[in-house]
Design goal:
Length: 199
């Protein structure tokens, strides 16, 4: 219930199933996880574009963008990183309840945090997509110059350098972004959604 006990959950009139019927597709969260530079934002946006072109209702929640607004009060310490992921899970759940496919692009390095979010959803609504990419490749890409700063000690608790990344043990989809093209990767995600009859 949180800190305030004087609140009541109000049930909605239009159900998620009603929205699925109107949209012509089911809703879910595509949870992209991987090291910085593994291609999460790039792939999430590419999949979103493909869904949009197919007339599917979808939206991307990007890690950096969320920290510009909703989570701008959070640091990169362990506790705040956990809270960052918890909040994103709650927002993603609202999108799924609204009948949309929501694509989240967050490092989300800890298995426990990803499992916490998975447990917010019904079976088959949480689709973990692991962008498996060698850290050497991510570091060579370094689109934001973060690895260089981390190596210089300018960024504390940087995932892959001074803080661990716990790879998913059983993700629904694994994409090796150092070897698979964007087109191949997008097709892999769309094929999974089709196979699971979400689309």
């Amino acid at each position: 219930m949180g800190k305030n006990r004087n609140i009541t959950w109000h049930h909605i009139t239009v159900s998620k199933a009603d929205r699925h019927l109107m949209n012509g597709h089911k809703s879910c969260v595509l949870w992209f996880t991987g090291l910085s530079g593994s291609g999460k934002s790039t792939l999430a946006n590419a999949v979103d574009l493909e869904l949009f072109q197919q007339g599917i209702r979808s939206y991307v929640l990007d890690g950096d963008n969320i920290r510009h607004g909703l989570n701008k009060d959070l640091s990169f310490g362990v506790g705040d990183r956990k809270e960052n992921i918890r909040r994103i899970g709650e927002v993603a759940k609202l999108f799924v309840d609204s009948g949309q496919i929501v694509l989240t692009a967050f490092i989300s390095p800890f298995s426990q945090d990803r499992d916490l979010v998975r447990n917010m959803f019904a079976a088959d609504e949480f689709i973990e997509i692991y962008l498996k990419c060698p850290i050497s490749v991510c570091e060579n890409r370094d689109p934001k110059g973060l690895y260089l700063k981390a190596r210089k000690g300018e960024i504390a608790e940087f995932t892959g350098i001074s803080s661990p990344y716990e790879a998913p043990k059983k993700p629904e989809v694994t994409i090796e972004t150092a070897m698979e093209t964007i087109e191949e990767s997008v097709n892999k995600v769309i094929d999974y959604l089709t196979k699971k009859k979400i689309l």
